[in-house]
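Notes from the pairing session

We agreed to fold both candidates in a single pass and log them together. This is the raw record for the first candidate, unedited. Please don't reformat it; downstream parsing expects exactly this layout.

Candidate A
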Amino acid sequence: MSARRRNRATGATPSGVTRREFITRGGATLGGLALAPALLSSGSAFAAAQTDGPGGKVNVLNWPLYIDKKSKKDFTKTTGVALKYNEGINDNNEFFAKYQEELSQNKSIGFDIVIPTSWMAQRLIELGYVQKLPLGDIPNAANLSPGFQNPLWDPTGEYSLPWQTGITGIAYNLEVTKRELTSIDDLFDKKFKGKIGVLSEMRDTMGLMALSEGVDPATITFAQAKGAFKKLEKASDSGQIRRFTGNDYQDDLVAGNFAACIGWSGDVAQLLIENENLRFVVPDEGGMRWADTMLWVTPSDQSAQVAAWMNYFYDPVIAARVANYVQYISPVDGIKEELAKLDPAAAESELIFPTEETQSRLKTFGALDSKEEEKFDNRFAEIAGA
């Protein structure tokens, strides 16, 4: 893994500021349409009350700055379940390397719930490191948006519930490009030579490269990806690409060092306050959708407490409060009305509520077996100079 690599959830910039510390600063555009910022509300439509919950405790491992403080406190007040919450996931591969030995031996890793990205969730499911969710005790699981039911990473829908989701597309600085961008091929416009950034997250970058070649990332094989890799390599070798970047692409985008780059929708929403010329677009060829998803790891025996956690955060009132803080796409259906009570502008944001047309153009990177994944990772690292 490249030392330059950052994960979207932590994304420390050179100034030490993480992407989620930009929450609620700005707005963005989706398909060129200006969107208003969603301001963080200090209030809540939810009135916490002590109930006869299961008691006990639950230990949760998540990404940094991925939940509002009030919801954490109200969870314990509402359910009676003591919460140990850790923001220790900084990178999917790093997480796997740290806990694989204990998980493979069915030993406790100190957590009941972990929230990796979907492709890592699939690996953990296939390796038998997670348990079927106690869905009978999670009635609010019925609020799972239809688009996330029986996903590629969990075809039976028995092992996971998404925490938050987002979009990978093209971010650009209109002051530098002097025109609107609509296509992945705009990244290869010679006018932007030396001013293009691509993500060091393989699935995000190669997902868009595949789409530009007419290949579906949901079913892609290494053989099918050869044209996309060649296209990326040519752009890198010619100097079209300024650099492969983690979340620190934000600085170059704001400063104008990047005319355009592959980026994440939420970043632009948060950075527009620094530069009103920023835009985000789901390209004509399509964009990528990703999800960070909740899993119940072995050998945790905290079934009632795990159910209480997931049921609480799948309440539309609570899910709306979290969405208002993180500004990602919530996997919980029916939050728009609740979000409108907190922030009407957020309830109208196409970044939080993509249109059906936008959603129809989003793809999830398909499953790769270990041999295929190694080929993808090695080829990508070769091009990126990692």
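Candidate B (folded immediately after A)
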Amino acid sequence: VAAMAALNKVERGKLSLDEDINRRLVSWKLPDNEFTAKKKVTLANLLSHTAGTTVHGFPGYADGQKVPTVQQVLDGVEPANTAAVRVNMEPGTKFRYSGGGTTIMQLALTDIERKPFPDIAREAVLKPVGMDDSTYEQPLSAEWRKRAASGHRADGKPVPGKIHIYPEMAAAGLWTTASDLAKFAIEVQLSLLGKSNRVVSKEMAARMVTPFIEGSAGLGFFQDKRGGAIYFEHGGADEGFRAQLFAHASEGYGAVVMINSDNGQIMQEVLRAVAREYGWDEFTPPPAEVVEVAPERLDAYVGRYQVNPDRAFNVTREGTRLFAEPTQAPKIELLPVSETRFLRRDAPVQYVFVMNAEGKVEHLTLHNGAAIEPAAQAPRLAPGALIPYEMLLAGKAAEAIEAYRKIKKEQPANVVVAENRLNNLGYELLRQGKRAEAIALLALNAELYPASANTYDSLAEAYMENGDRDLAVKNYRRALELDPNNTNAAQMLKKLEEKK
């Protein structure tokens, strides 16, 4: 929705898709570095998530918490609860989802229009499309709040304070309904057919749903090809809420599913049910018949399997049913379609337990959809074995750090030891009150990525939260040496030195 607002301004000559976004930013500038030396970040990069910008998503701010400005969010400055948004990959080369990049786009719009983002989005998209039950107001006014749902955790408990506030409105701040999002999808479909130009032209709508570079999103949507059918889609996740929009690019059908829970497993099941009922083209796989498997056979599958160096798949039996709980994800039921092959309701993934000559499980294979070749092979973990993430949670920081260091040495490109992932894990540990573990992990990140100012900035923040002033100062200084434009480090240093 926010992307369409930006494209509306492009077609009115107020923004350009292909110029340096810094030319339109007034109240804040995206710092240049070695990654932007060859190519600057453009609006098209930001909309297609090819800008190389950091920060995947935002946790928002609970009731009573101080809410930062957009500029503070982008610089990772207190009271922001996420890292600074910076470029750490050459723009235009790869897809990587970045809510941080979407927030830069939001600021560009407010800078050129000189009005609040909710007003811009309402005038450009919400009002023309008839989305009368939608707003980007953050926080919600008292009148809107009366009409709004409250978020819930995966276990059914309400989110503390009921909802979170998102100054990152374009990335995470839309309050809407399934009907309003359906109106939006219909507007895109009509624009693609040349039957409506209330917001964008047919040509611009096509760019919204066509990958910008191979393997990336379009200028707003993801494209989903299923055989000869082309769909466009986008999901959403805020604290206590999940949503999914899915629509055919030319046939006029689609659906929107929204749920006020962190556990969105049912959404895919609902989508498939709608698709089956209305005969969506090539959307659903052939129906599978669930079979009965003896409890003693299910017992053979119980255990933990290692999907990647830092992700385990914990399989348990409850009566005659088999369940699995992936690391950092909700528990799912595994439905048997044969004695060894299982499906799940919320994703087109198959799990096959492979037996050895003695009839014992050798490993688990994960297949995408109906693919014959396994997407991944997961060996069974020995009883008591921990993956690095679990070591951190268990307070075994030294062991975890050595394990991550080993992974980096043996598999340097593995996403498990990517700078952003380690940084996000560090912040997650801080939020859990595990300061020693967070410091150990963020220190490792600085060790593995010594040229990144952000690693030192994050480590300094952890030291500061732990009361280690001198170490915080040392690392903020190092962050500034690497990136003299790091305003967060400069401001934090000033605060710390004033307290000395």
